[in-house]
Input
Amino acid sequence: MSLPMMRIAALLTAALLVSLLAACGKEVPKLPPPPLEVSTITVKARDIDISAEYVAQTQSSQAVNIQARVSGFLDKRVYTEGSVVKAGQVLFRMDPKPFQAQLDAANAALQRNQAALAVAKQNLDRTKPLAAKNALSQKDLDDATGQYEQAAAAVEQSKAQVTSAQLDLSYTVITTPVTGVSSYAAVADGTYLNPQNAQLTTVSVLTPMWVNFSLSENEYLRVQNDIRDGRLKLPPDMNLIVEIVQPDGSVFPFTGKITFADPSYNSQTGTFLIRATVDNPKGVLRPNQYVRARLKGAVRPNAILVPQRAVQQGAKGHFAWVLNSQGKAEQRPLVVGDWRGDSWFVNEGLKPGDQLVVDGGQRLSPGATVIVAMTDGVAKAAAPASAAR
Output
């Protein structure tokens, strides 16, 4: 081969190499990412019954302190400590002999004064006609009248003393004015009772039973705001039903109602006291038990409740993924409310009819194309291969 021809071949080879190198350096166009598989639900608004639970403590609706009304020696306790006692049942007996002696003395004084009254009346009856005939002076009539009135007053005084002595004697038999469960005897038999150690025991009424619980200031304000904004609706006259959950988790068979709400704020605990009253005919609930009070009857109208796993949290707060009209992912900021089981109330950010991504949202980005594998718990048919491409 001649030299010119060799040069032309070399130039062609170099040009081919340059073109190959240029082709190798060219960027390969990026393929779009494959669509992600997600599950969705259709957002719906509905009225939802609302309940709330609070730690509560039972309290007797009437705890009566049984005390001695007179001073004397305690003879005997005649009840079983801790038992249920009936109204009028005898609990203690005191030594009645000193009080019986006082009653006998008061009766004797009454009889003496009654006899003096009879004599004074007879004297007055004789004096009146004689004074009318001027056989006796007016002074004699005044003296007879005064003696009669003094004798009558002494009789009334003696009657009052008899009554007082009878009361003191009756107080030696100490009974309970209410039906309830009795406490221990605070004073032993044979003890001398006086105003300093008059407390004998306590009887606590078992039915109805009070159930006390507290509402924090923050929760109280939140409830007020929800009512004001229409997110919470209470029954008429605030007649919430109160269920009592016992320590073992069982529900007490009788329900109660709120009967008292303390209008004063407790600055030490930061709470408001709420009291419910519940029937306790069999005495199952006892005073000072810890239970849970479950309030029922409130309604959240047109509420949106979504699964907790559909709600995510970022630097700007809570958000969720929804599918727009083109079927692409769209991020929605949310304002969430309370929990309910494994779901979350959404106050703002979603509306009825939205397609909310429940599963698979962790890998989404705005505008991402998705394949919906399941909607409202129903599996969708597999998309054709051409559609997937």
Observations:
- Residues 170 and 255 are 41 Å apart (CA to CA).
